[in-house]
Amino acid sequence: MLHLNGLGKRFGDQWILRDLNLQVREGECVALLGPSGCGKSTALRLIAGLERQDEGSIELDGARLDTIPAERRRIAMVFQSYALFPHLSVRENLNLGLKIRGVAPAQRQQRINSVLDTVRLREMAVRRPQQLSGGQRQRVALARALLRDPRVYLLDEPMSNLDAQLRDELRPELRQLILQGSQPVVYVTHDQQEAMALANRIAVLKGGCIEQIGTPEELYKTPASCFVASFIGRPQINLLNIDQQLTIGIRPEDLHFDPEGMPCRLISREWQGASQLLLLDSPRGALRMLCSGDAALGESLSVSWPTRAEHRFDASCGRRLAG
Ligand SMILES: Nc1ncnc2c1ncn2[C@@H]1O[C@H](COP(=O)(O)OP(=O)(O)OP(=O)(O)O)[C@@H](O)[C@H]1O
């Protein structure tokens, strides 16, 4: 188990991470999710030993990890930029780390072949990185991580340089290769869809603090704040300011047409195949609504939602209200 204990980090007099407490079990993938600058990468860099924390400690399987130098932590990190050597072939890129660690040549080739089969790149072994697609390059980077036989995997936005189709292709492979292993995995992303698809639990970070941690379903169904509610789920939740005390969140899929409901005007719509996303102008402000793809619509509509679909938040601090 990887255990982050009250971790804090500051640059100068500015705290970037504050009181970060997180436990990642064997075989569990926890995503750190949050907007740019919230401290996600810094948290990974602390675990990897590339930065030193100012407060708290890091433990792995009950022993201190943060007192061990980075090169001896046995942690594999995968970055969005692949970090491959451009002048070396795929095989040479993979060979390098094993050679540095003193693995015998015959054993090296055997392990490289096996890992190339795993990431389905055996035929590409003689190519250089620039002769590969982005997805293939990232698979080389994954292969290199696998070869390290690490105690922890740290993934920093590994798919953010790939287009949507390659991401879809790589996601199941990532899940299979790394997430089914027995090591703890920490996965940094600002993409809520990726976090929902890959992680067992998600920690939503805001300004260096954990705003909420839970399974994707828990975060979706009971967001602890307006911030989490807006971050999890697409299309984004509607937040309606009812009065000075109360903000109500309604997911676009919870709205339905109702002749007795709130009168709205159709501003625009995006056809998405099975569904369509409507942008409505209502007396309570703009509303996003998901409805069936074949619904015929006029310019004037009336909508409502079931009370049980309401997420109720304190209007001033944004925290979820009990009940
Ligand atoms: N070496 C440094 N010196 C000073 N400030 C830094 C340093 N490294 C990071 N920061 C600051 O710390 C904050 C958090 O950075 P970090 O890279 O952890 O964010 P992030 O959540 O990973 O963002 P992104 O998604 O954009 O990568 C940012 O405001 C950044 O400018």
UniProtKB/TrEMBL annotation:
It comes from Parasynechococcus marenigrum (strain WH8102). The keyword Nucleotide-binding applies. GO terms for molecular function: ABC-type ferric iron transporter activity; ABC-type maltose transporter activity; ATP binding; ATP hydrolysis activity. Residues 2-232 form the ABC transporter domain. Pfam families: ABC_tran, TOBE_2. This is ABC transporter possibly for trehalose/maltose, ATP binding component. The keyword rRNA-binding does not apply. InterPro entries: AAA+_ATPase, ABC_transporter-like_ATP-bd, ABC_transporter-like_CS, ABC_transpr_FbpC, ABC_transpr_MalK/UgpC-like, Mo/tungstate-bd_C_term_dom, P-loop_NTPase, Transp-assoc_OB_typ2. Transmembrane segments: none annotated. CDD domains: ABC_Carb_Solutes_like (cd03259). It comes from the Bacteria. Keywords: ATP-binding, Cell membrane, Membrane, Nucleotide-binding, Transport. One of its GO terms (cellular component) is maltose transport complex.
